[in-house]
Amino acid sequence: MKESNSHLALDSTPVAVIGAGSWGTALAHHLGRHGREVRLWVYEPELLAILCQKRENTFFLPGVKLSSHLSFFGEAAEAVRGAPVVIMAAPSHVFRQVLGLLQSAASPEVVFVSATKGIENETLLTMEGVVREVLGPERSYAILSGPSFAREVVQNQPTVVTVASRQRSVAKLVQRLFSTPTFRVYTTFDVTGVELGGALKNIMALGAGILEGLGLGANPRAALITRGLAEIARLGVRLGANPMTLSGLSGLGDLVLTCTSSQSRNYQVGVQLGAGKRLPDILAEMKMVAEGVKNAAAAYFLAQKLGVEMPIVEQVYRILYENHSPREAVRILMTRALKDEIDALAESW
Ligand SMILES: NC(=O)c1ccc[n+]([C@@H]2O[C@H](COP(=O)([O-])OP(=O)(O)OC[C@H]3O[C@@H](n4cnc5c(N)ncnc54)[C@H](O)[C@@H]3O)[C@@H](O)[C@H]2O)c1
Ligand SMILES: O=P(O)(O)OC[C@H](O)CO
């Protein structure tokens, strides 16, 4: 992709955040409290009314008085009109549909930043692919990802993430936009690696939760993180990612975060599955998204299509969609053909 916008600079024009879930709200608040005007698009009309009245996202991030620099919009096209940067924070299964709502209003020069971690089920594309299909191949695009729970970001806990763009000037612009003394942003060119690391760790977090729900200990969790990373790298490298990216913040960093913290929604879903609860019952009680649930199917089919071995993803998929027993899944993983560890790792790295 050509460096067409090396002139990129940030003025005081408001930026848009599309999606007022916990992450979109946290990112908007983060920018707002550092003085940037932010237009936040809200999908639910009831939530829009509450935000306008109380400046609190009672649906997805309750208990936070949002920055006075935020304004709230029910029309996505209105929120993005004139904005130099559009931050997409809609879940991956509606990302394409939401892009369609704002397509005609976004200027051709706008920088799209995805804060979404996922793979589209129907096309097996990450969000970069979806943006290019919907808006055209020449759009400036970046992905912001890494270990970052929304709640901790609003609490100003030190958070370190990565922004990837195929255009260095775009990555630098997004780095400048978000960086503060408590929110540190690294840059990279490796969009594929950053997007796959973020999407695939959600499936591993489901797996770690399942182990916890089964009452298994710390040993299997450490094994799952390590072998999970090997699987992520195997698929990532096959799709052109730099393996070093997968051991960075957006890969290993986010994998460790979500496989070891009950703050992770994916981990929480896994715990309930491991404890014997049925997936439809778990999802019926959740307002928030656990991207790994849909992404397990996308990753499983992507791996099948490419002939990449992903045994943990396969077992998580079978538990979610084929009603397999979590305990049996552990048995299958533990009794696979015995291997040399270095040979097995060398396949992926
Ligand atoms: N929450 C976090 O801590 C966090 C951190 C980093 C990245 N992310 C990623 O951010 C993305 C958004 O997740 P979230 O955690 O903000 O969501 P959330 O679970 O907090 O909220 C659900 C979101 O989905 C939206 N939504 C539901 N149905 C919709 C529809 N039909 N059309 C448009 N929007 C619809 C809701 O409006 C809301 O914004 C995900 O890809 C997630 O992996 C989340
Ligand atoms: O709550 P989760 O599992 O969706 O994880 C949220 C973020 O991706 C953590 O970086």
UniProtKB/TrEMBL annotation:
It catalyses: sn-glycerol 3-phosphate + NADP(+) = dihydroxyacetone phosphate + NADPH + H(+); sn-glycerol 3-phosphate + NAD(+) = dihydroxyacetone phosphate + NADH + H(+). Substrate binds at K117, R265, N266. Its main location: cytoplasm. Pathway: Membrane lipid metabolism; glycerophospholipid metabolism. NADPH binds at S22, W23, K117, A150, R265, V289, E291. Belongs to the NAD-dependent glycerol-3-phosphate dehydrogenase family. Catalyzes the reduction of the glycolytic intermediate dihydroxyacetone phosphate (DHAP) to sn-glycerol 3-phosphate (G3P), the key precursor for phospholipid synthesis. This is Glycerol-3-phosphate dehydrogenase [NAD(P)+].
